[in-house]
Amino acid sequence: MADRDASPASDSSQSSCIAVAVDENPAPRSSISASPPTSTPPTSLGDEHSVTSYVAKMETHVDVQEEASVPQEIIESPDTPQPTPEAPQSEGRRSARRSRASVSTYNVQILAGTAIHTPTKYLEKHHKNVLHGPAPTPANNEVTPRKRGIKSEPKEFDDPAEEQLATEAAQAAQRRKSSRVDLRREAIRNLAAVGEAVAHKGPGLLSGVKNKVQHALKSNTVRAKDTKKSTPKSSRKRPRASKAAETEEETEEEDEEEEEEEYVVPVTKKWLQQGLYVGQHRDFDARLSEAQNRIRRRASKKTENKHLPLPMFAGERMMSGDFQRDFKLPFDVYNPLPRKVKVDGWGKLSKNRFIGEASSLWKQEKQDNSTCYCEPEDGCLETCHNRIMAYECDSTNCRLTPEQCGNRPFAQLKKRAKGNGYDYGVEVQETEDRGYGVRAMRTFEPHQIIVEYAGEIITQAECERRMKQIYKKDKCYYLMSFDNKMIIDATRGTIARFVNHSCEPNCEMIKWTVGCEPRMALFAGSRGIMTGEELTYDYNFDPFSSKNIQECRCGTRSCRGVLGPKPKHQPTQEKSMVSSLVAGTKRKLQEVFGSGRGSRSAPNSPKKRKISAIGSAALAKARNALAETAAVRSQAERDNAEVAAQRASRENRALRRSSSMTLSSRRSLIRKATRHSLPSLTASRQTTVSIKRRTPKPMSKPGALKPIKSLQSMLKRNTPTLQAKKLLPAASKTPGSPAKDVDSDSDGSPNITPASLRSASRKNFTQSKLPFKPLKLDGLSTPEGSDSMAFPESDDEDAANEFGSVANGGIKGPKSPKSPNSRNATSVMKNTLSRSIRGTKRAVGTARAIGEGPSKSTIRMITGVEA
Ligand SMILES: C[S@@+](CC[C@H](N)C(=O)[O-])C[C@H]1O[C@@H](n2cnc3c(N)ncnc32)[C@H](O)[C@@H]1O
After folding, report:
1. Residue 384 has pLDDT above 50, yes or no
2. Integer CA distances (angstroms), 625 to 620, 795, 838, in order
3. Which GO terms describe its molecular function (predicted)?
4. Spatial contact of 423 and 525, defined as CB atoms under 8 Å apart
5. Which of the residue ranges 103-112, 424-433, 591-600 would you say has the lowest mean pLDDT?
6. Of 20, 682, 772, 781, which cross-links 96 as Cys (Cβ 3.0–4.6 Å)?
7. What is the tens place of the pLDDT at every residue in 289-328?
8. Which residues line ligand 1 at a C-beta cut-off of 6 Å?
9. Does domain 347-548 have CATH number 2.170.270.10?
10. Which residues contact 637 (CB under 8 A, 6 or more apart)?
């Protein structure tokens, strides 16, 4: 056998046999340890046998289990027949097992207490061992029979090395056990001390403490049914509380009986097992493995919020219950990543492109220039003339360097576009119910430029063609009318085309002139923009026909309900004002042609015939003029309907924008600066157009006005015609002027009612008498091409006088200084007619421009095809 033992061909089973042989014929252990070369190397000290024979290892374990299950009494009973070494062995195999049992296997790391990794699957078991067991008492502070059985087994070691190892292992085990026992003993001592204290201080304290403990640890209380089963009833000792407790009523004792069955598990730290914030979902059970938790979570089918991990359950209140909204980080820490959204049908253009005739048309239109007179210390801020007029400063119209000048928004934008996504600051985002929208990825200061509305610049004719042919079936239009004859079609354009409408917008679309070219851009409103906000502006929608009116889903408080104007429901006073102006003109025409009551000429005189002939020709013209007036009126009515629809929100916004730029405030300020007594027409959609002397307020918006001491001088320099202000008092003293009406209010803020306007129209549009030509405000012209804000020139004054003379007595009336008696009546009438019509148109245009403010009078979205 020894030969076989040394044989290189022997396998593990063979070595098992060898072990048996060794037991029977004692031989030096060293020969046994000479394992065959095929065996695995030892994995631990004293493991020689186990590594050479897997079966042997298992057997050892079985033996230990068997011994452990032998009751103590049986082991210690003298009656029990004990196997003696001399006892005959029925099988050699049995004795082999016995001999192997004496060779215990040890894991050095576990013995030394350096084993740091415990597989998760053992955790629960370990957890139970440590936490779930009943509190030990000194009485049961003894080793279990199983362990005792192992330990008490006498061991005989042939090999001194082996003996030493066994001794060391036993000591290590003892150390571990004793430290645990020490802790338990200490805990028990503490409990005893508490019990004593309770006994001295009475039952009140006991019940108080008991309640508190029960309350605090209620959530950690578990039933120990399984433990109860395994533990003999006699060994389950509850801590004796006190004599007082014993005197409690039986009912209480019954309760206690129930409570006895429960024991408290101390609160333990839930260790993170992987990743940051692991186990932060509510149903996480620290005693289960990650995988088990995952399975449980899936089984529960609860939808979990997938946002960034939170501190344990923080914000849960916000995300559930009444709030029901997703968690959002504060804006100042929130920095969304730029995303690129691909939108079908969007051809990107980064700057305007003139199409067809539009280019030549634009060049034909002589653009006004503006120059600023700012000093470097002014920095082209609120007081900059260019800024007021919405002109961008550049080297041609501003003396400041780009660094000094603060009125170059489009240049700023260009620089910004070269940066990264955050610099650019806007991105397309899909909205819930309004298609795409645009949101801010950064903050914008009040009135700061955000993005340019650029696209193809087309003529009105081209726009109509496109609408009828190309965009006929489209639901979204990207057409923006920003000039009398120009339209920006941003179907191919910048991202600004995606900005949605809101009745309470946070941005404004404003037309600027940059290097003699019109450009449109979205500017932040007076509140500024926060990161993440959706950008909106008021479309001032022109739906062309009622068929194209779309429902507004802006969801704001003052939502008008539709993107277009609301259906006409009530005639406004503005409308009546416009109609009365037109009616007044008609009446005058009738007066001119003799049908009026004021005609004094003889019915059949040659003069009358001549006049009548002239009159009939003029009448035809007048009819045409009336038709034109009617067209103007219908347009005005349409606008009025829109005005009515927008009134509420405009008023609100006007209030909010008290410090922002309005057309009227511009005019008011300019007039104030030039010390004209002419009151400004307040941009208002009220039923009466109030004329007030306003105290200009400071404004921060680009192009806004601010009371400035230098403005007057600047305007003097800039506008020589303003020198004519000296003539103003004379003008205001003109007989028949509405000066009395205007100054009727004691506070100097008179109202102009439709009646007074009517009388004003009869009395030559007294405003027209102003002998100066104020600064021409860009973007205020009527759709017909006449500049509503340009006051009549000197010939208008003449016309007005002539008109006045007609009104005051026909051709026989007072003569104008520039209308000699010899002037042909025909030309007088022609002039009168055409000017009266022009005056009416102007009045209508002015009335329209009044509530619409700068640029906005013409800037509007267009949708749908003309009905
Ligand atoms: C210039 S586009 C704006 C971008 C558009 N949402 C898109 O997806 O392309 C104008 C169109 O957007 C929609 N829209 C914009 N604002 C809206 C609002 N407040 N309510 C409903 N629809 C709106 C309308 O269909 C409108 O014709």
Report:
1. yes
2. 8, 20, 9
3. histone methyltransferase activity
4. no
5. 591-600
6. 20
7. 878 888 888 888 777 666 555 555 556 666 666 656 666 6
8. 434-437, 475-478, 497-498, 500-502, 550, 552-554, 863
9. yes
10. 568, 575, 578
Backbone angles phi, psi at 264, to 5 degrees: -95, 130
**Shortest CA distance to 595 belongs to which of 611, 579, 574?**
611
Q: CA torsion sign, 431 to 434 to 436 to 441? A: negative
| pLDDT value of position 275 | 60
Token representation of residue 394: 């550049």
Give the burial class of 254: count Cβ atoms within 10 A of its Cβ; 0-12 exposed, 13-18 middle, 19 or more buried: exposed
Say which residue the tokens 């005959």 belong to: 88
Over residues 686-700, the pLDDT tens digits come to 222 222 333 333 333
What residue spans define the domains of the chain? 2-119+131-177, 347-548, 573-862
> How much is the ipTM here?
0.99
Per DSSP bridges, beta strands 751-752 and 689-692 are antiparallel
Distances (CA, A) of 572 to 575, 577, 632, 842, 849: 5, 9, 17, 19, 16
DSSP labels, 786-802: -BTTSPP-HHHHHHHHH
Distance CA 143, CA 159 (A): 28
Looking only at the bridges linking them, the beta strands covering 426-430 and 436-440 are antiparallel
Using a 10 angstrom Cβ sphere, with 0-12 exposed, 13-18 middle and 19 or more buried, the burial of residue 573 is middle
Asked whether the beta carbons of 426 and 532 are under 8 A apart, the reply is: no
Query: Most distant CA pair in the chain: distance in Å?
Result: 169
Alpha carbon 504 to its chain's center: 16
Share of the chain above pLDDT 90, in %: 12
**Which atom of ligand 1 is nearest the CA belonging to 536?**
16
Q: What are the backbone angles phi and psi of residue 486, rounded to the nearest 5°?
A: -120, 150
Q: List the strands of the sheet with 689-692, edge to edge.
A: 680-681, 689-692, 751-752
What's the average model confidence in pLDDT over 639-658?
58
Residue 113 phi/psi, 5-degree rounding, is: 75, 20
CB-based burial label for 410 (10 Å; 0-12, 13-18, 19+)? middle
Q: Which amino acid is at 265?
A: V
Interval 8-35: pLDDT, tens: 333 333 333 333 333 444 333 333 333 3
User: Measured in angstroms, how far is the CA atom of residue 502 from the centroid of ligand 1?
Assistant: 10
Q: Which two tokens stand for residue 208?
A: 């108080």
Q: 220 in helix, strand or coil?
A: helix
Residue that has been written with the tokens 């201080």 in this structure: 201
**Ligand 1 atom with minimal separation from the 551 CA:** 21
Residue 161, classed as helix, strand or coil, is: helix
Give me ligand 1 centre to Cα 435, in Å: 6
Q: What is the pLDDT of residue 366?
A: 61
The residue whose CA has the least distance to atom 3 of ligand 1 is: 498
The residue nearest atom 24 of ligand 1, judged by CA position, is 476
- CA-CA distance, 367 to 520, in Å (whole number)? 16
Q: Would you give the end-to-end CA distance of the chain in angstroms?
A: 114
Q: Tell me which residue of 657, 729, 345 sits closest to 505, measured CA to CA.
A: 657
Does residue 536 sit in helix, strand or coil?
strand
Atom of ligand 1 nearest to the CA of 863: 27
Burial class (CB in 10 A: 0-12, 13-18, 19+), 686: middle
Claim: this prediction has a pTM higher than 0.90: no
Between 57 and 405, where is the model more confident? 405
Closest CA to 389 of 523, 540, 510, 528: 510
CA pair distance 812, 599, nearest whole angstrom: 10
